[in-house]
Amino acid sequence: MDKEIFMEQLEGFEVPGKEDYVYKLKKALYGLKQVPRAWYSRIDRYFHDHDLVKSLSKPYLYIFQSGQDILIVVLYVDDLIYTGNNAELFQRFKSHMIAEFEMIDLRELHYFLGI
Predict the structure, then answer these.
(1) Counting CB atoms within 10 angstroms of each CB, which of 26, 32, 46, 98 has the fewest?
(2) Stretch 75-92: mean pLDDT, rounded?
(3) Burial of 104 from C-beta contacts in 10 A (0-12 / 13-18 / 19+)
(4) CA 22, CA 96: separation in Å to the nearest integer?
């Protein structure tokens, strides 16, 4: 998260003598309004730093091209779909993503968004 978020002590979990203190969150939590924006900002910055170019008309579409090799990545909320024409490029992309983010590989795509 780019900005600090504070949370009041929960009822029944107050620290005696420090009831007016608040908690500072160390990382984003699911359910906070800012989480989707923070996630998109983080992954967009990561893609940009790794030479994936965002489509001007589709902000969820990223393309990496090197010579004849191409990698196309589609981002949907917190899911990624990627395709291209180079299996080695797939492996490098997947390895880098797993190293950077807490994620799993669900293997080949068979069903997505009801399609």
Answers:
(1) 26
(2) 87
(3) exposed
(4) 37
The position carrying tokens 């909320």 is: 77
pLDDT at 5: 63
What whole-number distance in Å separates Cα of residue 105 and Cα of residue 88? 16
Q: Which helix (H) or strand (E) holds 7?
A: strand 6-8
In terms of Cα–Cα distance, which of 109, 30, 34, 111 is closest to 73? 109
Percentages (nearest 5) of helix, strand, coil residues in the chain: 25, 25, 50
What pLDDT digit, counting tens, does each position of 13-44 carry? 778 888 777 777 666 555 666 677 777 888 89
Beta strands in 9-90 (DSSP E): 22-24, 53-54, 61-66, 69-76, 79-84
